[in-house]
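Can't attach files on this board, so I'm pasting raw text. These are the components:
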Amino acid sequence: MDTIITSKILLTSALPMLTALMVMFSGKKPNVREAWSIIGALLTFLSVLNLLPHILAGGAYDYTLASLYPGVNIKFHLDGLGIMFAGTASFLWILAGFYCIGYMRGLNEHAQTRFYVCYAVSVGAAMGAAFAGNLFTLYLFYEIVSIFTYPLVAHHQDAEGYAGARKYIVYLMFTSKAFLLPAMVIIYLQCGTLDFCYTGILNGIFPAGANKMLIVVSYLLCLFGFAKAGIMPFHNWLPSAMVAPTPVSALLHAVVVVKVGVFSTCRVMLSVFGVQLLHKLNLGIFTAYFVSFTIITASIIALSKSNLKARLAYSTISQLSYIILGVAMLTPSGITGGLIHIANHAFSKITLFFCAGAIFVASGKKDIKELGGFGYRMPITMIAFGIASLSMIGVPPSCGFVTKWFLALGAMELKSIGLLVVLLASSLLNAGYFVPIFLKAFFGKVAPADAGLSGSLENKPLIMFMVIPLLITSIISIVLGIYPDLFLNIIKVMVGA
Amino acid sequence: MHMEKYLILNTLSYPVLSVIMLVPLVGALISLLLKDEARLKVFGLLVTLLTFVLSLPLYTCFDLHTAKYQFAELRPWFSLLKLNYVVGVDGISVLLVLLTTFIMPFCILCSWRYISKRLGEFIFVVLIMETAMIGVFISLNTVLFYIFWEAMLIPMFLLIAVWGGARKDYASIKFFLYTLCGSIFLLVAIVALYIKTGTFFIPALMDQEYSFAYQMWIFVACALAFAIKIPMYPLHTWLPAAHVEAPTAGSVILASILLKMGGYGFLRFCLPMAPAATLYCMPYLIALSLISIIFGGYLALGQTDIKKLIAYSSVGHMGFVTLGIFLLNDQGLKGAVLQMINHGITTGGLFIMVGMIYERTHSREISDNSALGMMIPIYVTFLGIFCLSSLAFPGTNSFVGEFLVLMGAFKKSTLVGFLAIPGAILAAAYMLRLLQRMVWHDSDGHAHHHDAAGEGHGHVLSDLNFREISMVVVLTFFVFWIGLYPAPLLKIMDSSVAHLIAQISAGGTVVPVEPHGVHHSLLELGGWFRQIATF
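---
Top answer:
Structure tokens for the assembled complex are below.
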């Protein structure tokens, strides 16, 4: 299919920005403000859906907005990988929009207008990154995400919030300036352009005679530069970012922000360097083992955390590396498994964070030790939590199983016992830190402070705003496990079957 | 003398360069007759705006396909010395002239409330300053150049010494002495060139071939003057003092235009007149530029005074400019010129922002101006934009300039490129630190909780008024315009930069024989540096 050149694709990233403006102007009227937020999310999702048929048919969209220098443009190019990320993020934004109402009002948070504005801009920038047609555009939106999520992380404006937010911005800005900037320059000087390769994932943009040493250097710079992907040793910003209100942790630090990082890394691996080049220089297998370290180590750290959000944060770090691991295998199954995990992890992890936030608003509990008996007081929440946990572990029929299946296939295609062991070990570790939470909630001892308390915590209207979204996302986690075809088809278009 | 072959004489209906140079001068003289303060301000604004409007044909009628000096005027002046009045602009100086005429109205506007004493004299001095600055950029004659160069000194000295802050005497004398020292070397070089060639005409001086030793002397003398002006480590110490004490308008002129004189001087004198010496000294100047970038950024990181912070950031930014210049390749030179324009807009904007907050809180300490986010959101929004521009955020003007310079650096040698990267990191660090403290609150935890009423400062802070918003909106427009569509500016400088590179490669073939007066060990050091730089 052909590539359509149309400015229509600007709409998807413009809509959240417009939403932010509307939210800003209706700041005095909370109901109108939040209505705008949800309408904006809906329209954004619809605009992505509108683009889907052409992409599924194997086509692409393209539009150049501005030109800075020959080969350095603000250029948008939408293909399968981009639309999968954009669709997932914009869909979850709708649910998060409802969830925010429950959470922010339930806790009577301050500066809610600022919160909604930054929330919308961050999503819009993520859409821009998903639609980016070259490395510069990707970098541009990547940086906008960093700047506009800062106020969200620092939302509480207390010492803890500032400390977390500072760590957050220092990590993200340092890595992007120190690694991405030189990487872009080196890639430009080697290739004469920053545009992605639009003809499949096999060939990158590097010309045949490019300096091998510089290719390896720029690859490593990219790998570390996109620190939002949470690859160790530049992962530490993510646990610090958990000081943010939970809707931020949920949508942004499980879906939008971290996925921008992972998406960018995958995009650069597939559309800048290309499978053949990475294979030739053995960079794929190096990356696979490198991120394996993160997968295992983060899981082990997660075991040691008793704060629910902290445990989820380390789980996120571990799961993000699955995506990179899959792509780094450079085999069709591996890449499929990696890319589909962008969506699968999004639905499951947002459910888990939604649950954590709902529990906090309903009861003020943050620690896993205090969750005894919550299976009966918040049954929907805890069951959704259980389902999402199964998905994280990779138990059928949840969507996490689809990921594990393809990753395992990929490892076998590579005949790599080492990577299989990593997958198995991490699954066990996942079970190790998720199952106890579930067991505690249903069979654990009720915390002394809660003794004698009973009755559902889920029946208040504001709590319902939170419980219904998390129920929906947990159901989708199952649906995607039983019927993974939609995303698989998109990826098939991308990977070229 | 065939001066015409270097020039394209002015074909506009008025002698545009002389007019824009003289309008502020005439305005300055008329301003002496005015007494009423309100009228004086309006008059000053009108004169600077008129100058700007009159300078616009320089942009619209500029011929992109030639490296000759355009809009030129040639009149006999002092026949005994074969001295002519000759002015003209090429693709590099035209941008700096436009920057000057563009920035000057802001200097009047940002002084609207700031300057309360001796307003008449203030307008007079600012207008004289404009004449001198335009004169420097349009002169094609070393004598004329030097006259204007020196003519800038006194008005700037007065701006600091009369309308300056607490330590204005110290700062103004320091500024005066530093710049004067540099100028003396420049004068020596000009006289030496005249004795050697018998002409003052700059393009003709570029066309001569000098021996290597002679080039070295010319290069060192000129480079000293320009390195002080730009300023380059270790000759930068006058700058923070001058910036901190100068009134807002003084800081804006200083940052936006005066510093560019140094860069312009390198491009106009050192590179084309002493190409072999330039090539020889390149490693040292690249090294000094890298030191400036990192040192300036490092010092900026530790400042508690907002103005000082921006002053040190200027040292770093101008380090990028000199780095770009001495990379001597297309991207580097273009990046350097573009970065000069960008720095003029962005840092000018930042100083205007500092002036605005000083008018409100009467303090330039970061800790006295913290947690403004909730109180004056419009101010903070624009502050954020200028800060992001200053740290070369993608999509803003500085990114394009910095990216071009880095491109040139990596093209030259990967090592030089990587050595410049810490500068970019430091820029992000000190600007975000400033922004974090001013918008949110200072990190030492004593959050003075002021609600919307601004109790923390003991008085209510008002957000920007119409005059202030209109100033920053215009600057913001240019921040994004150059950031997203720099092609028009790059096209203008294209031919001239290509011509400059051709001049260097043609003249750079002069063999660097053992130069007299340059110590032997220095030569060895040079070889060592060169080895590093070509890694």
